[in-house]
Design a protein that fits this description.
The chain is an alpha+beta fold. About 35% of the residues lie in helices and about 15% in strands. Strand 1 (about 105-110) and strand 2 form a beta hairpin. The radius of gyration is 23 Å and the shape is elongated. Belongs to the cytochrome c-type heme lyase family. One of its GO terms (cellular component) is mitochondrial inner membrane.
């Protein structure tokens, strides 16, 4: 919901939020993933692993010569942890030219047991690239790759938290939160200053959401992404944009007074135009998957109420109410002073 970390408005037709400037730009040599191997959801993820779920048939003995050479460009260099192996070695590789950090960064994303997911160390990332056949990976780029990977995961979770804050108690309360548009919703939820806060959870009687499992599906376009590509073909000036470079499904546990259930979220990753300084810009389109009428209603309520509120002049009406209330208060104070 919304563009993800972009300083300026982009023409791509998904909702953005700006990417902070910094030195986490992934260099051109960073590979991403082999798109020729469709991923599947694993039944079990090791304790403390990255929130990516590997396929069951991931081979650990694949010969680099038998693997297709990595693609170049953003598709090939941004997200190397799709279809990751179940166990990531933290030992230095035999052919490794220089040492890499072994420390793993702890995320803000809770697992089903309440602990937090951990991201892979740069050494684990590099070893995984070697196991997948990317023997030409620039070792000096690995730390930047890990930083971008971790940052985008945190951004995806921030978006999911925004959905859960609105709809964790059900559609009726979600509508009450959303009915005056996004700005009012963030204000009422206490996230007006930072709508993408990944840790604040104000509900005292229900637990915050948890990420149960996670899978990458880069070869399977979502229906929304396909529709945007069709619109781009028909009206390139308005909707023309490159397709998502990646797609993930996150399975989240939502608990309320009625119990707990699993909610699937879909995430499309887009590339934006680079900043004048050369820094990359990425956009996330995060929303509940339409697995039933409830998730479809959530998407309709959140987008529909925001559009209607702005189109119907809701902001102007609220300003008039505030001005009328302020004027009435001033008149009351003036009468009070006159009486004294």
């Amino acid at each position: 919901m919304g563009w993800f970390w972009a300083d300026t408005a982009a023409s791509a037709p998904v909702a953005p939020h700006p990417l902070p400037r910094g030195n986490a730009e992934p260099p051109p040599e960073c590979p991403m993933h082999k798109k020729s191997v469709p991923p599947v959801v694993a039944e079990k993820t090791p304790q403390g692993a990255c929130p990516y779920v590997p396929p069951d048939n991931a081979s650990t003995s694949a010969s680099p010569s038998a693997t297709a050479p990595p693609k170049q460009g953003l598709l090939a260099r941004l997200n190397p942890l799709n279809n990751m192996f179940s166990e990531l070695s933290n030992e230095r590789a035999d052919t490794q030219a220089q040492a890499l950090p072994l420390d793993r960064e702890r995320s803000t994303i809770p697992k089903g047991d309440g602990s937090l997911w951990e991201y892979p160390s740069p050494q684990q990332m590099y070893n995984a690239m070697l196991r997948k056949g990317y023997t030409d990976t620039d070792i000096t780029a690995v730390e930047s790759m890990v930083g971008v990977h971790n940052f985008l995961n945190e951004g995806a979770w921030a978006e999911i938290m925004g959905w859960e804050r609105r709809f964790s108690r059900g559609l009726a309360e979600g509508y009450q939160v959303c009915k005056k548009g996004e700005e009012y919703a963030n204000y009422s939820l206490g996230t007006a200053e930072d709508p993408f806060d990944t840790t604040t959870w104000t509900a005292k009687d229900i637990p915050p959401p948890k990420l149960l499992r996670f899978t990458g599906r880069p070869t399977e376009a979502t229906p929304k992404a396909q529709m945007l590509q069709w619109l781009g073909w028909a009206m390139p000036d308005k909707y023309g944009t490159a397709p998502p470079f990646d797609r993930h499904d996150w399975f989240v546990e939502r608990c309320n007074e009625k119990g707990c259930k699993e909610v699937r979220y879909v995430i499309d990753y887009y590339e934006g135009d680079a900043e004048p300084t050369g820094e990359p810009v990425f956009f996330l389109d995060v929303r509940p998957a339409v697995d039933g009428p409830t998730s479809a209603a959530e998407r309709l309520i959140r987008s529909g109420t925001d559009v209607w509120w702005r189109a119907s002049g809701g902001v102007a009406r609220e300003i008039k109410k505030l001005e009328a209330a302020k004027k009435a208060k001033e008149e009351m104070n003036a009468r009070g002073r006159q009486y004294n």
